[in-house]
Specification:
Immunoglobulin-like; six-stranded antiparallel beta sheet; mainly beta; single chain
Length: about 1050
């Protein structure tokens, strides 16, 4: 037993060396395993392995059945790098439980137990066996009676002569538990000699027992009888976790019984269970807790049945769920370990220190796998092991307890050389020397002892705290630490700086979409300190690299960190915070930014009531985006219109406080859907979602057939043609015709006057037999189930007049860098003269002359159109006027619209793909728009099968997509950015070929190693992506 001072010196020396040599106690790298040695083997040596690490290198010894082995006293034992070699092993001397023991100056540990067994198989003692005489039809058992042995055996029986072995079936069974041969019902073919063959699976040796003759008795044949179970498993079968459990069951009987298996608790047999040898053997591989229970073997024939039962119980060797780990503790500290293991039955615990059992006495507290030492001393240092065991196994867990005993040492934890603090601030100067036990602390300022007061405090860990710092606190400070083993000190300086102050704070502003502003942030500070400005927006730091299109830090001085926001959008509204930080302080100033923009889309557009030519609408206002809504415009769409068209309403101009309107001038019996667009002083907002579709009521026709003319036909025929009008919007329209001869020959023309004729709705001609080459007049009218419209004579016609009124409510909005959408409302029918055949839209750039304007014409009642091929980021003027065959009418007042900035010209680059299992991931570099280009809003991934032309599109606002695809198709992929100005430049096409394995990768620069996209139903993209087809 070392004296306390010797331990102190040893541990102090080892601790001082620890920084350079990582000293530690023994740790097992390999522990010995149990083994079975076959006697008579040509290999005359047994090797038990043990590998250990430690610094210093541990010495290794061995125990047999708890007693140390003296290798030097027995020539048969030798050590080879820790492994134990046994030459010419002897069954009586060497069989038993072995443990490896490892020791160095930090302590001792012992390994798990490894059992050494010897396998052998002796010969049968008897030479002959008596004859067995049975009746035909009787059951019979031949005993094997294996000789003395060790190791697992297998059994077989020879019938008469080798190699004729007994074949097992429903009538014959060889038990691998006893070796006995069972014949359920003896037949004449069974007469002969039977020899038991025993094989040792470890030594591979075989022995044959003496033959047993089997003869038939001549006193009659055995009658039928119920089954008698001769082979059955025990009432309790302990079964280890993960092993294969084998249950045997066989019965004698006449007729031959059938064997079946079941669970007595009503549960199904495990699906993994297998039946062998005509159900005489049931195997359950990988036995688990749920497989335990009461099992039954049922033997049955026509004479009855018999049942054998046995309980399969589950057990498991201990297995660690919580192990112990090394602890480095100072003297008088509290140390606690806890280990936990699973197993069935529940394991018990014991503790070892340096290989010897620990008892709960004195300062040691042991309870259910926990070990506690309240006040550690040097004598407690060493190697500790927790041992968990049940009747099926034992496991060991090891840990080292190092007890530190040194005087204070600042060599690795010097006081901070220079500590900065602002006037009025708070500072903590840390003092953390290495020491055990914990030292006491005192402080000096300069050469004077520092006294604690309401501003100056020494904390429990030795650190010095000063609050409400003044300039007089500046100077040098020394921490002095003392314990039983020495005293040490360390010195640092405290520098006091003037605080930073905000001179110009950002202020809240109210701006309009598209404007640019500067939020000021200017400070005064100590110029000897580095200063850092950062800005946050709604709680998130602004990334000036990523968001440089809109945000820029300006100022040019180290005391200014102003923020410029360019081309402000609605999304930029919120709270902006300027944060200023130096090495001694940090402060912030905030401002709110209100952004006014065009209104959001109205909501819940509802059709309240419909007549033949009107519809009553209501809606809810959308967001006004901080600028009151000034007006609403109603648009309609029918199956016959080209897109959405503005319609006339009552009131004609819908102000921003009105949420209902009546649409007038609708066609009867037409299916309509409506939407509402809001506008304010900033501009025109997005349209609402469409309303439900509703059909107007049917009505009397209001117009006559157009272009009625006659002539042609065969001899004595008159053919009259016309254009159908209104019939499209009439539910049951037909044409009603009357005609009469005209001229001096009218009474002798052979034609009846006012001859009426009805034609079907879709018919546009009629034929009447008349005298040839005579002038004729006719009159035509449209009819419905509600009545008849005014008639139209033929062939006379009237001259049209030019439209006299201009279209109203002209609105225009930019939808991309090259496209503008314009809509208008037609003049009221009772306010203009001249039939309108369509509208003419004129569009000219601000720097162009109006007479050079681009002209676009619409046909019929279309009241909206798109103007394309315009220049991006340019101001345009638009005006609309009606026209017919007589000419154009007056022009509306011109409206202004500015096209959006052009889309990004740079295509996505560095496209890389890779696959893992069924997933394919595409990545590419972010596209940055130029100053004169629209901001990138996202990316479109276009893909198609290599053999198809149709392309599908996925939209995402990230620079990657993750896809789950079948690997049996080639795909072509392109990626391009999109913005408010439209789609940008597309990347080069990437071909992703079929992938035969689950892992592949490639890049856009190689057309031979691209990844494949697949069917729409299997596309899986990241949460921020959305797909459109």
């Amino acid at each position: 037993m070392r004296l306390l001072w010797e331990l102190l010196v040893l541990h102090s020396v080892l601790l001082c060396l620890a920084d350079d040599n990582t000293l530690h106690g023994p740790v097992f790298l390999q522990e010995p395993d149990s083994l079975i040695f076959p006697l008579g083997s040509e290999e005359k040596k047994v090797k038990l392995s043990c590998e250990v690490k430690g610094n210093p290198r541990p010495t290794i010894g061995w125990k047999l059945n708890g007693s140390s082995i003296d290798v030097g006293m027995d020539y048969r034992y030798s050590l080879l790098e820790g492994d134990l070699l046994i030459n010419n092993p002897n069954k009586s001397q060497d069989a038993g439980m072995y443990q490896c023991v490892a020791t160095n100056p930090f302590g001792t540990i012992v390994s798990r137990e490894a059992q050494l067994q010897f396998a052998y198989l002796e010969n049968f003692k008897t030479r002959t066996r008596s004859t067995v005489s049975v009746r035909q039809g009787q059951g019979m058992v031949l005993l094997c009676g294996p000789p003395p042995h060790s190791g697992e055996l297998t059994y077989a029986w020879i019938f008469n002569e080798y190699p004729s072995f007994v074949h097992q079936d429903s009538r014959r069974f060889v038990s691998q538990e006893t070796g006995n041969l069972y014949i359920a019902k003896v037949e004449t073919s069974d007469v002969g000699n039977y020899t038991c063959v025993v094989t040792n699976t470890v030594t591979n040796s075989k022995v044959l027992g003496p033959p047993t003759p089997l003869v038939l008795r001549n006193d009659g044949v055995m009658g039928e009888y119920e089954p008698k179970i001769e082979v059955q498993f025990p009432e309790t079968v302990p079964s280890a976790k993960g092993t294969t459990v084998k249950l045997e069951c066989f019965a004698l009987g006449n007729p031959v019984p059938t064997i079946s298996w079941r669970r007595a608790d009503g549960k199904q047999l495990p699906r993994k269970a297998r039946r062998h040898r005509s159900s005489g053997l049931l195997e359950i591989p990988n036995f688990q807790q749920e497989d335990a229970g009461l099992y039954e073997c049922v033997a049955e024939n026509v004479r009855g049945k018999n049942v054998a039962r046995g309980q399969l119980t589950f057990y498991a060797q201990p297995s660690w769920t919580q192990q112990i780990s090394d602890v480095h503790a100072a003297i008088e500290e509290r140390v606690s370990w806890e280990c936990r293991a699973s197993g069935r039955p529940k394991p018990s615990y014991r503790w070892l220190k340096d290989g010897e059992p620990l008892q709960p006495q004195g300062r040691l507290q042991l309870e259910q796998g926990s070990l506690t030492i309240p006040n550690v001393s040097l004598s407690d240092a060493g190697m500790y092991q927790c041992v968990a065991e049940n009747r099926h196994g034992v496991i060991f867990a090891s840990a080292e307890l190092s007890v530190i005993a040194i005087g204070p040492d600042f060599s690795k934890t010097l006081l901070k050389k220079l500590t900065l603090v602002k006037v009025g601030g708070e500072v903590i100067i840390e003092c953390k020397p290495k020491a055990s036990p914990r030292p006491t602390y005192s402080w000096k300022k300069g050469k004077d002892i520092l006294r604690e007061n309401e501003r100056i405090t020494v904390l429990d860990d030795g650190s010095l705290r000063i609050i409400n710092v003044t300039k007089s606190d500046a100077g040098s400070y020394t921490c002095v630490a003392t314990n039983h083993f020495g005293t040490a000190s360390s010195t640092g300086s405290l520098v006091v700086k003037d605080p930073t102050r905000v001179m110009v704070s950002p202020f809240s502003m109210d701006v309009t979409v598209g404007e640019s502003i500067v939020l000021p942030c200017q400070v005064s500070h100590d110029h000897s300190l580095d200063i850092v400005f950062t800005w946050s927006f709604n709680g998130h730091l602004i990334d000036f690299e990523k968001d440089g299109d809109h945000f820029e830090r300006v100022g040019g001085q180290d005391s200014a960190g102003d923020l410029m926001i360019r081309s402000i959008q609605l999304k930029h509204a919120g709270k902006y915070v300027c944060m200023v930080q130096t090495s001694v302080d940090k402060l912030s100033a905030a401002a709110d930014l209100i952004v006014r923009g065009p209104p959001g889309p109205p909501e819940a557009v509802t059709i309240e009531e419909v007549t033949e030519s009107t519809a009553q609408l209501s809606w809810r206002p959308g967001a006004d985006n901080h600028s009151p809504i000034t007006m609403y415009v109603v648009q309609a769409r029918t199956p016959f219109s080209v897109g959405w068209q503005a319609v006339s309403t009552v009131p004609e101009i819908i102000d921003g406080r009105t949420f209902t309107a009546t649409v007038v001038g609708l066609n009867p019996w037409v299916e309509y859907e409506f939407r509402v667009v809001a506008a304010n002083l900033i501009g025109i907002g997005e349209p609402s979602s469409p309303s439900e579709k509703r059909r107007t009521e049917e009505a009397l026709p209001e117009v006559t057939p157009a272009n009625v003319s006659g002539g042609g036909g065969s001899k004595s025929e008159l053919v009259i043609t016309w254009e159908r009008r209104c019939l499209r919007s009439c539910r049951t329209g037909v044409a009603l015709a009357t005609w009469w001869p005209s001229g001096p020959w009218a009474r002798s023309a052979g034609c009846r006057q006012w001859w009426p004729r009805r034609t079907p709705r879709a018919t546009c001609s009629a034929t009447r037999a008349c005298r040839p080459s005579r002038p004729t007049r006719s009159r035509w009218a449209s009819t419905t189930t509600r009545g008849k419209a005014p008639s139209a004579p033929s062939p006379s016609s009237t001259r049209q007049r030019k439209p006299t009124r201009a279209p109203t409510t002209v609105l225009a909005r930019s939808i991309s860098a090259s496209d503008v959408e314009v809509s208008w409302a037609p003049p009221w029918e009772n306010q203009h003269k001249g039939r309108i055949q369509g509208y003419e839209v004129r569009c000219w750039r601000h720097d162009e002359k109006e007479e050079n304007a681009k002209r676009i014409r619409t046909v019929g009642n279309q009241t909206s159109t798109k103007v394309s091929n315009l220049r991006g980021n340019a101001l345009y003027h638009l005006a609309v006027r009606a026209y017919n065959t007589a000419g154009t009418g007056p022009s509306s007042a011109a409206v202004n619209v500015t096209t959006k900035k052009p889309p990004p010209s740079q295509p996505p680059g560095n496209i890389v793909w890779n696959s893992s299992d069924s997933k394919i991931i595409l990545n590419w570099d972010q596209v940055k728009a130029l100053d004169n280009e629209s901001e990138v809003r996202g990316y479109k991934v276009l893909y198609r099968w290599n053999r198809e032309s149709s392309t599908s599109v996925i939209e995402t606002n990230k620079t990657s997509v993750e896809l789950s695809l079948p690997f049996d198709e080639d795909y072509i992929i392109e990626i391009k950015p999109f913005s408010d100005g439209g789609d940008g430049s597309s990347s080069e096409q990437i071909r992703i070929p079929k992938i035969s394995n689950a892992y592949a990768r490639g890049s856009g620069s190689s057309t031979s190693s691209a990844c494949t996209l697949s069917a729409l139903s299997t596309i899986m993209i990241s949460l921020t992506a959305r797909s459109s087809l």
